[in-house]
Amino acid sequence: MTTRLRLQELLGPILIVIAFSYVVGLQSAQGLLIVQSTLALFVMVLALHVFVGNSGVLSFGHGAFAMFGAFASGIVTTPSNIKENSLQLQNLYPFLVNLNLGMYPSLLLAIAAGALVAGLSGLLLMRLNGLAAGIATFALLGVAYNIFFYNNRIGPGSQALLALPPFQFLEEPVVLTVIVMLAVYLFGISRAGRTLRATREDPLAAPALGISITRVRWIAFTLSGAIAGLGGAMFAHVAGTVQVQDYYLPYTFMTLSMLIIGGSASLWGATVGTLLVTGIGQILLMMEQQKPILGIVVHIPNGTRAIVIALSLVVMLLWRSEGVTQGREFKIGMPKLRK
Amino acid sequence: MIQAILDAVSLGGVYALAALGLGLVFGVMRLVNFAHAELITVASYTLVMTHQFPLVVSIVLSVVAASLMALLMELLAYRRLRGSNPATMLIVSFGVSVLLQKVYELVFGALPRSASVATGLTGAFTVGGVSITIASVVTIVLAVVILLAMGYLIERTKLGLQLRAAASDFQTARLLGVRSNRLIASAFVISGALAAVVAFVNVVGNPQVDPRFGLDITILALVGIVVGGMNSLRGSALGGFIVGAVLSLLNVILGNGRVYAYSWMFVIVIVILLVRPGGILSKFATKERV
Predict the structure, then answer these.
(1) Testing the interface with B: which of A51, A52, A124, A143 to mutate, by most B Cβ within 10 A?
(2) Which of A95, A35, A62 is nearest to A255 (CA)?
(3) Which residues, 6 or more positions from B129, have their beta carbon under 8 angstroms from its beta carbon?
(4) Residue B19 forms part of a structural domain
(5) Backbone phi, then psi, for A297, in 5-degree steps?
(6) CA-to-CA distance for A263 and A268, rounded, in angstroms?
(7) B111 interfaces chain A, CB cutoff of 8 Å
(8) Does residue B282 sit within a domain?
(9) Is residue B111 one of the residues assigned to a domain?
């Protein structure tokens, strides 16, 4: 991550994401679905990058913001007649039953919900430091999961919210993702972003220069909460359904792994990590289903896919612990991998 | 009422053991070993799969299995990560955790395996008109014995001295002649053995072992070591105890609202951390100096 706007650092990842979306998305209906869900996860990875990458503090709490975003957007876009008639929603607050918004207003609502929850909880959580702060954010995820799982006044509880309007075109998630990438990059080169990275590099010198660590972390936390809210809602509208379990531990680990594997400190790292992990997963899925890859059929037994994914994540981090990009930004003529 | 307190103390004791296992490893290499859950799980599977053997044999086997697994994790994965960023190590341990869960799923199946282990411990007895479950008493005794033994090991033996030295300053400890490989390996082995004790207590209470058996307790123990203070072993154990005891009490106090016990407990955790950001046992004035 650098301090000044360098167009290639911004445009490189954007163009690669767009290229990936069209090349894979226009192949087949399945390809379209892969692209849409990858983009929804990518937005979540970007949210994590804004906070984790710039502040150096790990957060497990972002699943909570995604949950709030997804449920906020989901509950207002589910048609009223479904809300009235489905069994799992019979205890819903009446005003939620009658509230109906279109997809895009609901995404704005998701962003607001994520930002609000992050902003409020951040007031407390951002006063903590180091690894303790990271694990305290786990408490946030735990609380959110616990509430959504049992409270059927605000959602379907442990059941699924069904019949959400899905994205109509490939362009919708692509445009949303590009906007988020732009915002993330601009935050990175902004004054707040740069001071936040200063606190990451040296938490003793930064306050000596008059930086309030709590304040800059709070700004990033709130912004990343907003983005996580959007990411959660996008994930819901790709699948057409929301269930609280979808945003709990596997989701949190998946998105965090994508970020750390790519290299948490850069936009390029978030991009590479997301595409790499998705790619490995898809290739293994094709092997499991005995589909040809570049004309070659490699068959792996059912159930080994998850093992190989986890194994490759571990091996990749053992091989390069700062992530594949080592936190560097995109640069043409780049890979000068070894010094 | 008495039963509620006994339950709280026994759950607290179990969580203290789990937290101590995590704290030992954290102390020597700044690794929050999320895959501690899978040590508990493998010990539990061992107990269930060997239930036809005499109890002592199956307990010994489960201790061996968990310690061996811990040692393998160290040798194959964590050894290469020494000194890297704690966030990276944590993510690697997630990876190891997921990996082992999937392996267990492949080996033992996704559905729970069950067998009655130590049937003598289920049931209750009556003292002065109050019914008390045997399991809670046994758990408390076991936890106290193990904690005392660990206390002796840590406070009175050379290994313990080295562990404490490493927990407070690993580099200096190495410079003073502590053998890091051996020390870290022993920390892992002990944490595996502790995981096996936790597994035993859990399996007696709930013999439905599935690949994610150890996950919940590990997450809570993780929260526990932060609450108690990650930089001291006593703090870790105390924090684990607090988390377990509070959770158990909340389940009684909240009545019908007990489904939200986790939320209240996490709120309490956040409040404790705001008052004592370094954990309960952290010293107030010790801020890192340049």
Answers:
(1) A143
(2) A62
(3) none
(4) yes
(5) -100, 115
(6) 8
(7) no
(8) no
(9) yes
Choose the weakest-confidence range: A41-50, A82-91, A242-251, B46-55.
Answer: A82-91
Contact (CB<8Å) A131/B230: yes
**Whole-angstrom distance, CA of residue A106 vs CA of residue B95:** 35
Whole-number Å distance between alpha carbons of A34 and A32: 5
B263 with A146: Cβ contact below 8 A: yes
Domain definitions of chain A by residue range? 7-258
* A48 φ/ψ sector (left φ>0, alpha ψ -120 to 50, else beta): alpha
Residue that is written with structure tokens 């957007």 in the block: A73
For residue range A267-278, what is the model confidence (pLDDT) as tens digits? 999 999 999 989
The secondary structure of A126-158 as a DSSP string is: TT--HHHHHHHHHHHHHHHHHHHHH--SSS-TT
Q: Which residues of B touch A311 (CB under 8 A)?
A: 95, 99
- φ/ψ of residue B130, rounded to 5: -105, 125
Overall number of domains in chain B:
1
Q: How far is CA A131 from CA A56, A63, A142, B26, in A?
A: 10, 18, 17, 11
Q: Say whether residue B250 is in contact with chain A using an 8 A CB cutoff.
A: no
ipTM of the complex: 0.82
Instruction: Tell whether the torsion through CA atoms of A46, A50, A56 and A57 is positive or negative.
Output: negative
Q: Which domain CATH number covers B89?
A: 1.10.3470
Give the bridge partners for B125, in sequence order: B132
Burial class of B97 by CB neighbour count within 10 A (0 to 12, 13 to 18, 19+): buried
B99/A311 Cβ within 8 A: yes
Q: Which domain holds residue B252?
A: 2-275
pLDDT at B129: 72
CB pairs under 8 A between A and B: 115
Determine, yes or no, domain membership for B281: no
The amino acid at B126: T
Instruction: Looking at mean pLDDT, say which of A2-11, B55-64, B273-282 comes out highest.
Output: B55-64
Q: Which pLDDT tens digit goes with each residue over A3-13?
A: 677 888 888 89
Residue with tokens 């998705």: A278
